[in-house]
Amino acid sequence: MAIGAHLLNSGWPFAFTFGMDGLWFAGPMRPRGEEKRIAVIGAGISGLAALKCSLEARNWTACFERSDNVGGLWNFTEHAVDGRASIYRSVFTNACKEMMCYPDLPMPDKYPNFMHNTLFSEYLTLYAKVYDLLRHIRFKTTVISIQKSSDFLETGKWDVVTEYYGKQKSSTFDAVLVCTGHHVYPNLPLQSFPGIDKFKGEYMHNRDYKEPLSYAGKRVLIVGLGNTGADIAAELSRTAEKVWLSTRSGSWVMSRVWDNGYPWDMVYLTRYQSFLNKILPRAISDWLYENMMEKRFSHKNYGLVPLNKSSRKEPVFNDELATCITCGTVVIKPNVKEFTESSAVFDDGSVMENVDVVIFATGYSYAYPFMDDSIVKNSKNKVSLYKGVFPPKLEKPTLAVIGLVQSLGGIPSTTDVQARWAVAVIQGICKLPPTETMVKELEEEENAKENWFGRSETLSTDYVSYMDELCSFIGSKPNLLYLFLTDPKLAWQVFFGPCSPYQFRLKGPGEWLGARDAILNQWDRTIRASRFRVVHSDTESSFPPTVVKLLFIPLLLLAIFLAWP
Ligand code: FAD
Ligand code: NAP
């Protein structure tokens, strides 16, 4: 973003990075906004990021969390708890440790590349401890309502009512950061399945699925091929008598383990790749994408092929599903046309007889029961928020939602950048455009998103572009040209290497001094997380071979890129 444009956005003369790195480093030039009293609702990934960013910007901040611990969704419970996300016992992260961390705290060395929920939850607690967040969190305290104060039009303040062991209390805050997650309210589209009311077996949403033992010997139908449906199907295939997985529109199914065994996101989520997506004609980029997805197996032959092949709808990350299909332990079927008392009839006329259990792995809807619907409208799961964060029609920009939009990148870094921007707006360091401009931009972006991600993925966004855009608002977007001139080794990793979270706290306000080292050592940490048997004749290389193979093309593109305004 040009300096002028940034100045317009920030409203503060020093909130830009061009050539100013030394000054940011020294600290005094860091923009300092008005101190505010801020409420954060929820202490999951988003809430911890919001709390930390708000405190970092020297605001008095209270975080309200209805449970007794941090980590939100990542805390497994034996039974689903009302108002909270609920996961099954075997959930692993589908982003690797270098991409799923906060930008200012790499994961401990002993962690594997992809983490079980217990380990990731441990990391979230570590983050809260390292940044001394726990004493700002009021556990067992539920936010019952938030309402505009009587003087909202002048002050933008909110009245927040909380409940602690049945006792309610009202307090006034200058601003509220809503971090309550969006995998709480199940989407159970029973109206789409005629006959389900006559079905005599058991049916449920996956929210109530916890582990495979109780399904041993049963005939199970899973509806929905998202990450949840695929995980549950693969898991049940070992104990259930029969597992059928029904999908109405298919999905690309990818492995967590990519070229030469590196985590998929270390190889694929790069600025270079994002740059190619931007400059290549859509037809070529679609062709490359499809080829990449088809590398391991033909989705057509496995009955998985997505109806809209070119859509960048979130892929399913599953290393076992293809094996289950090829071994016959999971059978892929089209959409369910109807249920009878004991069977499911599919669109192709085939029938699964004697179904014991139907698990609807049909995703989630989001809701904010503690505030007026008109503030954040959920119309068909579309996001009515400017840049996925601010309600554009609110008279004062003092309420922000953190963690609602999602991208292929890990959530912690996205929420960190969203929170830094939100806090900067609340403190008056950055300014939002006029309402009409925001509404217009929002509509345009929604249409573009539908075209790119498909209709069912309205909460999705492109990771690198989205992060860069928000970072440009707060003066933290990595300046590639400057980096190439001053620190080419780092610049190379920033452009061709994984677009890891550390990049977004490399320079500018919120700079983390460990970011450079974290970027330069990310491949070594990745290898260390799996190589426990060292063979000394190995040729040591921490560079991914795919990048080496493509060296010539990137150099050429780089030249174009650098010359690009
Ligand atoms: P949550 O984790 O849901 O936290 C919300 C918190 O708010 C909770 O602690 C809740 O108790 C609290 N709360 C809610 N309402 C109130 C209230 N009224 N008052 C007080 N407190 C309240 N994303 C990835 O990036 N990588 C992954 O590998 C990944 N895996 C996933 C696996 C599953 C099975 C699911 C369902 C999602 C996964 N996601 C993944 C996406 C996931 O949403 C994020 O990882 C992340 O957990 C979202 O964090 P959050 O803080 O926004 O919400
Ligand atoms: P999801 O991604 O929203 O997938 C829901 C599936 O249900 C889709 O395949 C959808 O089909 C289908 N569906 C919805 N309504 C339907 C209807 N009326 N009829 C037929 N099919 C219908 O939900 P999810 O799999 O629970 O995942 C939610 C989030 O959690 C995702 O971000 C995911 O990445 C994450 N997650 C991660 C892991 C992990 O390994 N870390 C595990 C589980 C979940 P269409 O595609 O046709 O819309």
Automatic annotation (TrEMBL):
Membrane topology, record value: Single-pass membrane protein
Coiled coil start-end: none
Pfam families assigned: FMO-like
SUPFAM superfamilies the UniProt entry points to: FAD/NAD(P)-binding domain
Transmembrane segments: 546-564
Gene Ontology CC, one term: endoplasmic reticulum membrane
UniProt subcellular location: Endoplasmic reticulum membrane; Microsome membrane
Gene Ontology molecular functions: albendazole monooxygenase activity; flavin adenine dinucleotide binding; N,N-dimethylaniline monooxygenase activity; NADP binding; trimethylamine monooxygenase activity
Keywords: Endoplasmic reticulum, FAD, Flavoprotein, Membrane, Microsome, Monooxygenase, NADP, Oxidoreductase, Transmembrane, Transmembrane helix
Cofactor(s) needed: FAD
This protein's record includes keyword Endoplasmic reticulum: yes
This enzyme's EC code(s): 1.14.13.148, 1.14.13.32, 1.14.13.8
Top-level division of the source organism's lineage: Eukaryota
Catalytic activity: N,N-dimethylaniline + NADPH + O2 + H(+) = N,N-dimethylaniline N-oxide + NADP(+) + H2O; hypotaurine + NADPH + O2 + H(+) = taurine + NADP(+) + H2O; trimethylamine + NADPH + O2 = trimethylamine N-oxide + NADP(+) + H2O; albendazole + NADPH + O2 + H(+) = albendazole S-oxide + NADP(+) + H2O
Its biological purpose: Essential hepatic enzyme that catalyzes the oxygenation of a wide variety of nitrogen- and sulfur-containing compounds including drugs as well as dietary compounds. Plays an important role in the metabolism of trimethylamine (TMA), via the production of trimethylamine N-oxide (TMAO) metabolite. TMA is generated by the action of gut microbiota using dietary precursors such as choline, choline containing compounds, betaine or L-carnitine. By regulating TMAO concentration, FMO3 directly impacts both platelet responsiveness and rate of thrombus formation.
Family label: Belongs to the FMO family.
Protein name as it appears in the record: Dimethylaniline monooxygenase [N-oxide-forming] 3
